[in-house]
Amino acid sequence: MSEVFPAPVIVVGVGRFGLAVLERLGDDWMGLRLSGADVSIDNLRLLSLLPRPAPARPGDPGGNGHRAAAGWRPSERDAIRIASYLGDSDLPSLALDFAILRSLGLIRYHDGSYQVALPRDAGVVEVEKQIHRRRYFDWLRLDPDPIMAAERLRHLAQRIEDVDLFVTPLLNRVRQGHSPHTLLACIDRCRALVEGRDPAPWEWLNATEGEPAARSLDVPVSALLDAGEIADAQRVEGFLEQAVIAMPEPLPGWRWWIERPEGAEEPRLVVPSVFLRRADDLTSPLAPANLLDQDWETTGWASERRRATGEVFATVTPHPLRLGLFDHDSREGVSHETLGSRLVDLGKHLHRGLVRLWVDLQRERVGDPHVNVLE
Questions:
Q1: How far is CA 80 from CA 27, 67, 186, 350, 367, in A?
Q2: Taking the model in full, what pTM does it have?
Q3: CA–CA distance, 247 with 250 (Å, rounded to integer)
């Protein structure tokens, strides 16, 4: 051993005590690795010696996970199957974070790339003798590929403090089991992803427009807004134009059209078929626009107690279309077949992430990290 690894070397046998030592050692190693306090932690290596797996049998539906578990004691085989299925990659956890934000309506697909929403402030305006804030979503680019976008989301949160302050409390709240409706939406999205679809999570987009179809949805924006909504959008746009920081247009030509709907060229919303919502697809359990009235730059802003106190800001509330809460791809001659296959891969990673979350929640429920969650 001294010729392979530097001294000292710790050898831990198999058993309840040995597994507990390995788990504690792994937790300490992860904490040291994240803090980067000592370069010598790179010398740590963890090796596992599994029982000899049973030979493959024709038509074995269990695959490698079932064969690897065959050499273990009967009481341990189910746990080994789950561990073999989950693996040790970060992708399942990254896919879960991505799916949570997508299910909440905070991630969209726009002109060939996924984007994540970040609330911004464009100053104050007086509305009916009351001060309101102009709040909007700034959409930060992730990646055209959904799996790469999930990885990019983690890197963005590590690099940009504002992204971390906004998305991390939301993700932690869902991961701790405090938002069961969001978890149900993630499970439903996992079902859609393995079908090669990533349906829009926003309720304002009529699901009847997104029934199964082979082609994209291509409609003028007036088909999505009634006369009252257009009039309200014109009124709100007047307040938004007074902002020192201009809110980006949701679609090219929006501001010109909303000022003169009868004479200007009308913007069109183009939604690829993989993003169309069916009648049985679940929508976001909350309206993303409601997050704009929260002071998300304070600690614990996403907690139940903080949100129960009511609005923090009185805001000018535009239509969800004005906030950019929709999927859109106006590029011509672009095929989304490759995107559909990558969505299937994302769905497989998401399923593993959901199983990981289930294991974590089961351990937290019983309060014993060493409990057999399958009992």
A1: 20, 10, 25, 20, 21
A2: 0.77
A3: 9
Residue the block writes with tokens 């690795």: 33
314 Rama sector, left if φ>0, alpha if ψ -120 to 50, beta otherwise: beta
The burial class, CB within 10 Å (0-12 / 13-18 / 19+), for 335 is exposed
Place of tokens 């679940």: 282
Cα pseudo-dihedral 226, 227, 229, 230, rounded to 10: 110
Is residue 373's pLDDT more than 90? no
Over residues 340-356, the mean pLDDT reads: 94
Are 182 and 285 a contacting pair, CB within 8 Å? yes
b/e burial code for range 148-162 (CB count within 10 A of at least 16 → b): ebbbbbeebbeeeeb
Once rounded to an integer, what is the mean pLDDT over residues 88-96? 90
Helix (H) or strand (E) holding 137: strand 130-141
Contact call for residues 333 and 115 (beta carbons, < 8 A):
no
Angle ∠(237,239,242) on CA atoms, nearest 5: 110
Q: In what order do the strands lie in the sheet with 107-110?
A: 107-110, 113-127, 130-141
**Residue 267 CB-density burial (10 A; 0-12 exposed, 13-18 middle, 19+ buried):** buried
Contact between 276 and 196 (Cβ < 8 Å):
no
Q: What is the mean pLDDT of the chain?
A: 78
| Residues in Cβ contact with 58 at an 8 Å cutoff, skipping those fewer than 6 apart | none
User: 210 or 193: which carries more pLDDT confidence?
Assistant: 193
Closest to 158 (Cα-Cα) out of 238, 210, 90, 206: 90
Q: Give pLDDT tens digits for 245-303.
A: 667 888 888 888 887 767 668 889 999 989 998 888 999 998 888 888 887 777 666 66
- Distance, in Å, from the CA atom of 123 to the CA atom of 243, rounded to the nearest integer, reads 6
Residue type, 320: P
